[in-house]
Amino acid sequence: MKVNTDTKLFFSVAGKPGNFGSYMYNSAFEKLGINAIYKPLQLDCKMNFDRFFDFLFALKRVNASGLSVSMPFKKLAAVIGFYKSEEVKNTNNSNTLKFEYDYNGNPKTYCYNTDCLGFEQACESILNKAKSAVIFGTGAVADSIAYILNKRNINFFYTKNPENLIDNKFEFLINATPVGMDGIEDTIFNKKIVKYYKYVFDVVVKKETNLIKLSKNSMIECVSGWAMSKCQLREQFKIYTGQEYPEDLLSNNMKELGYE
Hints:
This protein is of the alpha/beta class. It has 11 helices and 11 strands. The protein has helices spanning 20-32, 49-61, 74-77, 86-91, 115-122, 124-127, 140-151, 191-194, 210-217, 225-241, 247-256; strands at residues 8-14, 36-42, 66-69, 83-84, 96-101, 107-112, 132-136, 155-159, 172-175, 199-202, 221-223. The strands form 2 sheets. The chain has a 6-stranded mixed sheet. The protein has a 5-stranded parallel sheet with strand order 8-7-9-10-11, sandwiched between helices. Helix 5 packs across helix 7 (140-151) and helix 5 (115-122) crosses helix 10 (225-241).
């Protein structure tokens, strides 16, 4: 694909960006013949609302078409928007911004949250059975997960204290923190904690975190973060392009990246 004046620009922003989104999006753009590119960007994690607003303004000045938002900017992203989805309104965080322009080049921002759908689809089997859950973490992703648990009438509580994960009589353990990511050692989860649960979900996008390995070894039904990432990617891609992400390419890419 040749970049030209008609090329649409999509970006992602994170405190510690990776190449997952770039690989997944640019390969799909090429396969579908979409004249667009996707580029990850890094921002200061301590950025306040005014500076984040300036960043968005700069993107709109170059006619960016969309922005995928990762931690810790999801709550900042939800503040601005001509349109906000029900998920954004109820969680106060957004991971997907779409920019549309009128004939005079004036932009409108549309805010979406595909994390909610991603979690719900990835954990559908567990959500159909679980009656109670504990969310380890209190950030933006935790709020998206809580929204779905409320929707499913599943009793839950948040905690940042590992001691609250032990012998609490709840069925579904959810890690909604970066614990277990590359570079963030897991000093939290162990057999003593995992043995109390029937189901486990780890938001970390990795084929097998320590938490997932412990769960498998204990024969506990579990779901990895890459499953949620795959589901939310499908939805986000459709929001951005109006097209479905090619399933054969999705599967091949996940295998190539080592998630399946």
